[in-house]
Amino acid sequence: MNMNIAVAGTGYVGLVAGVCFAEVGHQVMCVDIDKEKVEVMKAGISPIYEDGLEELMQKNNAEGRIDYTTDYQKAYREADAIFIGVGGTPERSDGSADLTYIATVARQIAESVVKDCLVVVKSTVPVGTNDKVEQFIQDFLVNDVKVEVASNPEFLAQGTAVYDTLHAKRIIIGSESTWAEDRLMEIYQPFHLPIVSVNRRSAEMIKYASNDFLALKISYMNDIANLCELVGADIQDVAEGMSYDERIGAKFLNAGIGYGGSCFPKDTKALDYIAKQNGYALDTVKAAIDVNKKQRIMLFTKASKRLITLNGLKVAVLGLTFKPGTDDLREAPSLDNVPLLLEQGGADIYAYDPVGASNFAKVYPEGKNGNGRITYVDQAAEALEDANVCFIFTEWGGEIKAIEPDTYKRLMRTPLIYDGRNIYKVQDMERAGAEYHSIGRQAVM
Ligand code: NAD
Q1: Where does the chain cross the membrane (predicted)?
Q2: Rounded (10°) angle between helices 235-243 and 200-231
């Protein structure tokens, strides 16, 4: 049965969920506090870059199954279900989650609903939070209606968010009553996806345990990669050899300059914090955090040892976003390295990213910056022209991975390359006559 669904928050999680709910036939109202964003979405323009999202928005806008508003009362009043996908679960300085945004939505719901309604929390929240959200709503509830809270954590990956939602490997439903479970099952029925139904706290834990396991896998491979360099092994060969073991799996074995994005850094710190609060030392996750911290500046550390100074050198930076396919810069390794290059190095940076440059320029405006300078260019070749050093931070397919090894040799003043994503074969760079440093593989000089 099609339902009236409201979605609070139109970021990567909320907007994609809303559009996909509309696509399978539900009637959806998306709520955001950002007026400008709402206007843009009404006009059929996606405020975020996600493959296929804008087309799907335009189709469902035109067919009248989805609309956007800042008027939360209108949206929540008669909704059968309200999904919460607001951000605002970033870590505070101690690693704990900041639940202010979720609390605001909870209160708005309590003051608005006039009929029985299921509130579904998609945002990643510490175990036990949804019990509190339900209590909070009860405390502020204005009308005599039933409101229950279910947990439905999100597993999409930015860059493939629409595909991941429509073809999710599993839907996790965390509920405390058959009423809540049945309603959520009904909402997801048209997706025809596997559903795992558990209690609310287990659902909340599944999200953290999954993300932190992946972060751990990345940090483990990075740790092994650093050791490979020291003992003369090659991490890519090692990863390939490991990947045939089904117990290990072939994914998340790529070594690089560490994980970033809005989830892994935050969710590892949050679980570490939750463990500490419960008097438990979660040593594995703590190790993943520590390795990642070192790994993110690994290339800068290597370059600082190789060069007397970066001062005044033209430094090409290829890739700024935390991964390809997204314009998101949150916790991107570039955000650790660019300030080091500018402040400690005094570098003259020429940065290229196919979609992330304008967001980056909001943090590091073009021109003189600290002890160095930064210029944003529209083509990778402009960054490489006459450059002394090149850092690769994001493995954008067509735009960066497609650059031929010879191009570095041809365009750069000195073809000295620090590749944080291992996008080239070492032999190809050697053949091209470049000096090539990567992660977990032997450097060629
Ligand atoms: P985001 O920052 O991209 O979007 C959040 C949106 O919520 C913003 O547009 C903001 O304006 C809006 N908002 C804030 N307060 C609001 C309110 N009171 N009413 C309506 N809208 C409000 O966040 P995101 O990346 O989509 O992440 C949301 C949550 O989902 C986080 O908890 C995150 O950990 C989790 N998550 C994210 C991803 C991901 O890949 N980004 C994947 C899985 C889970």
Answers
A1: none
A2: 130
> The pTM is what?
0.92
Question: Which residue lies with its CA nearest to atom 35 of ligand 1?
Answer: 123
Given 180, 198, 216, the domain boundary residue is 198
Q: What does the pLDDT look like over 351-405, one tens digit per residue? A: 999 999 999 999 999 999 999 999 999 999 999 999 999 999 999 998 999 999 9
Are 415 and 281 part of one and the same domain?
A: no
Domain span including residue 371: 297-437
Strand locations in 87-146, DSSP E?
A: 117-121
Identify the residue whose C-alpha is closest to ligand 1 atom 30.
123
Q: Tens digits of per-residue pLDDT, 45-64?
A: 999 999 999 999 999 999 99
281 plus 302 within the same structural domain: no
Confidence of residue 262 (pLDDT cuts 50, 70, 90): confident
Q: How far is the CA of 54 from the centre of ligand 1 (A)?
A: 18
Query: From CA 385, how far away is CA 403, in angstroms rounded?
Result: 13
Q: 161 and 211 share a domain?
A: no
Determine if ligand 1 sits within 6 Å of the CB of residue 260. Answer: no
Residues taking part in catalysis: 263
How many whole angstroms separate alpha carbon 343 and alpha carbon 322? 21
Interhelix angle 334-343/298-306, nearest 10 degrees: 30
pLDDT band at 192 (very low <50, low <70, confident <90, very high): very high
User: Do residue 160 and residue 218 come from a single domain?
Assistant: no
Domain count, the chain: 3
Based on the fold, state whether residues 229 and 263 are members of the same structural domain: yes
